[in-house]
Amino acid sequence: MVSQSSSEAYTNMGKTSDLTAVQKATIDTLHKEGKTQKVIAEEAGCSQSSVSKHINGEAKGRNNCGQKKCTSNRDHRALVRIVKKNPFKNVGEIHKEWTAAGVSASRSNTKRRLKDMGFNCRIPRVKPLLTKKQREKRLTWAKDKKSWTAAEWSKVMFSDESKFCISFGNRGPRVCRRTGEAQDPRCLKSSVKFPPSVMVWGAMSSAGVGPLCFLRSRVNAAVYQQVLEHFMLPAADLLYGDGDFKFQQDLAPAHSAKSTRAWFTDHGISVLNWPANSPDLSPIENLWGIVKRKMQNARPKNAEELKATIRATWALITPEQCQKLMDSMPRRINAVIEAKGAPTKY
């Protein structure tokens, strides 16, 4: 027969929800001291199961909290198929197609399911479309330059034209993709080599940057040779003095014209051979990106203000930044070799 005192002690051993604040504090303190659950139960004046539930129950409860998902695994697989079929659809379009397949979900639920599955809306990376022959030439070029040292790359002056717009905010439709899919061909946006716009010409080396040239008309061979005469030569004097250097340019028609090749020969300037459609191999492409990111908060009202902003931002580029970009050449070349000539992350 159970004594009255034992019965009273037993009835005081309530459930976890019945524990007082003092009992919970006692359990927490003794648990941190490494006491066993039996000893803690005796000290706190409650059952051992209450101690166990208090120690482990809260974390378990938090993991199971929240509203139950209204969609099934089958619905989720259908959602993945929709996104992979066309990753350039926005959330509204994805939601419309998903619900049209018989799934009952709100637009916000669709957005949450996409996020749960690792999909995020990102600005698509722009990569040139390469033919098989172009990939082969890139791979051959990279293997040929694989042994170049930092000293050899320091003697190369990289040049390029880039488009600057009044507004930097509109970068086109976004793409729905998972982490690690930035280079997936399905998630890339193909680039256009020369969009109809005014271009800015610039040059850089490991020593810094040269003067900018704002192009007022379409660049043909004659216009390009004037750029070389009045901007490239002064840049060479600034960056190399009397030292030798190689000049890098892409294979735009004005650059590879017969009269332009004659201009280089007449001026005794060595031109670095370059594979077609290879902006990922040129560090000046990254330099343009740095300049444009610095200008994201600028709000020029007209072309003259835009030019002034570009000049001021270009002047802030340091030789250390240029050297860091030039130091990336071995990594760029190795990346092209590993990709067998395909476009790389650079």
TrEMBL record:
Renumbered to this chain, the signal peptide range is none
- Report a single Gene Ontology molecular function: DNA binding
InterPro entries recorded for this chain? Answer: Homeodomain-like_sf (IPR009057), RNaseH_sf (IPR036397), Tc1-like_DDE_dom (IPR038717), Transpos_IS630-like (IPR047655), Transposase_5 (IPR052338), Transposase_Tc1-like (IPR002492), WH-like_DNA-bd_sf (IPR036388)
Coiled-coil segments on the chain, per record: none
GO BP of this protein: DNA integration; DNA transposition
Q: Which domain of life is it from?
A: Eukaryota
Give start and end of each Tc1-like transposase DDE domain: 156-307
Give all residue intervals belonging to the Transposase Tc1-like domain.
Answer: 76-144
**Descriptive protein name:** Tc1-like transposase DDE domain-containing protein
Organism field:
Gouania willdenowi
Q: What is the lineage of its organism?
A: Eukaryota, Metazoa, Chordata, Craniata, Vertebrata
